[in-house]
Design brief:
heterotrimer; A mainly alpha (320); B mainly alpha (89); C mainly alpha (102); A: 320 residues; mainly alpha; 13 helices; 70% helix; C: 102 residues; disordered C terminus
Chain lengths: 320, 89, 102
């Protein structure tokens, strides 16, 4: 019964995200959608995903969206403009061919949805890979199956995910240019705001570290900790303490790449001993996974902060 | 007992659904922002009840995550949109 | 039904009542600032009752400490965001009392 209500709420929120008449409404609907989705993940038993979903969708993306909205002059929101004189210039000779891309996309997505439903409707016999993972769990160095799969059995995928995040940052740099960053942000004159930032920084740091180290035996891990630590960077950046202008540039670059680099190094290091790529010796596996996760969290945090700092910086140029 | 927990969770979900009316209707953006606060608090309550209902203490971590990130959203909006005064989105 | 379960149920019901009060306040109060009042106070109090009820139900001391500190953190975050929203709204222009009929 809870699940039916939650599913209906999620679908309703998703529709509202798309169809809400004003842009700020969509951002807040997206935040609520992130909450509903996190609850859905919790109901499905995937607590790791729930934490990541709550952290990324609600926290990080919410702030990014708000920052992007700042660029738009909201009186020119397209729904409202349609009522003005622009509607007279809407070409009426578009005909039915203009609907083809939308229809094709809709049909394609519908088919994909049907296929996905059919594939996941029945669980595979024997619980799928659960038994295989549980059999190998003692050799992986951690006690939580999700962390074992992500960081040991399929470490290759996680390494590439770190690479993808870094590529995203590089793409943002390529589009916007790297402007480092001496800009005075004069909003931080509010004592309560300053105090709350200085309070939340250690709290977020501690909670991120807690999630990182509990990833060994429970839901947690590098991504969740990385997003929380990235929130520290964003918080400091919003408060006027620009993180990237106080540290030397090479420190920032090292922090960005240390997760990916160390992971890469470790993956190929044991080739010399005759093991396969990304295969850790079971005796050290726990310690190695811990080191990898810590460095990966640092890298993710720095990347997220850099993404936010660059995007925030770029928008500021166009404030009229 | 389990039935009671289920009723509580459904009640809190209905609270969220009612709060959506304020997001849709609120005349200023601050109204929508305070509804975000409602979502955060109610979401935390739902996660707390779920943690007890399903006897999984790991859900509490999700609740803390939601807590600290709800305020990030508020701080983000307040600072980022302070630049444009005099415009009512 | 044992006494512990009875107290848990009572605490949860009180918490739900406060949540309902907060939501009704958000919907029906006439002005932004009054809505902020209703939401911040009532919802956090409801959360406190629900947290107390669940801490009683999950009878481990570590979880109880965690839940209590979570509630304190939520109080801090809520009060700060209430202040920030109010200041944000007040600085924009003179606060107009928009009468909202539901």
């Amino acid at each position: 019964m809870i699940d039916i209500l939650l599913a209906l709420l999620t679908i309703y929120l998703a529709l509202q995200c798309l169809l809400a008449p004003r842009l700020p409404q969509t951002v807040f609907m997206f935040f609520a959608f992130g909450l509903a989705l996190a609850l859905a993940w919790v109901r499905l038993g995937a607590v790791d995903v729930a934490i990541t979903e709550a952290a990324v969708a609600s926290g990080f993306l919410g702030v990014l969206f708000l920052d992007a909205l700042q660029d738009f002059s909201l009186s020119a929101s397209p729904k409202r403009r349609g009522a003005g004189k622009d509607s007279a210039t809407q070409p009426e000779k578009q005909g039915w061919t203009s609907y083809l891309p939308g229809v094709a996309l809709g049909v394609g997505l519908g088919l994909f949805l049907l296929i996905a439903l059919e594939a996941t409707w029945k669980m595979p016999e024997g619980g799928g890979l659960t038994a295989a993972v549980a059999a190998q769990l003692p050799q992986s160095g951690v006690e939580h199956p999700v962390t074992a799969v992500l960081l040991n059995f399929r470490a290759y995928d996680t390494w590439l995910e770190l690479g993808v995040i870094l590529l995203g940052l590089l793409a943002i740099y390529a589009v916007g240019g790297v402007k480092l960053y001496p800009r005075h942000n004069n909003v931080a004159d509010d004592p309560v705001l300053q105090q709350i930032m200085w309070f939340f920084t250690p709290v977020l740091f501690l909670f991120g570290a807690f999630l990182l180290y509990i990833g060994k035996s429970g839901p947690g891990g590098a991504f969740q900790a990385g997003v929380l630590w990235g929130s520290i960077g964003i918080l400091l950046h919003l408060g006027g303490k620009l993180v990237f202008s106080v540290i030397p540039r090479w420190v920032g670059q090292v922090l960005l790449t240390v997760g990916l680099g160390f992971f890469l190094f470790l993956g190929f290091f044991f080739l010399a001993r005759g093991a396969a790529v990304f295969e850790y010796p079971p005796a050290y596996a726990g310690l190695l996974i811990l080191i990898i996760e810590t460095l990966a969290a640092i890298s993710i945090a720095t990347t997220l902060t850099a993404i936010f700092a660059t995007l925030n910086q770029e928008n500021k140029k166009e404030v009229h | 007992m389990d039935l009671f927990f289920t009723i509580v969770i459904i009640f809190l979900l209905l609270n969220i659904a009612l709060g959506l009316i304020r997001v849709w209707r609120g005349p200023t953006v601050a109204d929508r922002l305070l509804t975000t606060q409602l979502f955060g608090t109610t979401g935390m309550a739902i996660l707390l009840v779920l943690a007890g209902y399903l006897k999984q203490p790991t859900f509490l971590n999700v609740a803390i995550t939601f807590n600290v990130l709800a305020i990030l959203l508020v701080i983000g909006l307040v600072i980022v949109w302070n630049k444009r005064k005099g415009e009512n989105p | 039904m044992s006494i512990k379960e009875l107290i848990t149920i009572i605490l949860l019901v009180i918490g739900c009542f406060f949540f309902l009060a907060g939501t009704l306040g958000v919907l029906r109060f006439p002005d932004l600032f009054t809505r902020l009042h209703a939401l911040t106070k009532a919802d956090n109090l409801g959360l406190g009752f629900i947290a107390a009820g669940m801490a009683l139900h999950i009878a481990s001391p570590w979880a109880a400490v965690k839940i209590f500190s979570m509630w304190l953190l939520m109080l801090l975050a809520s009060s700060t965001s209430c202040y920030l929203i109010a200041r944000f709204e007040k600085e924009k222009d003179a606060p107009k009392n928009k009468k909202e009929e539901l």
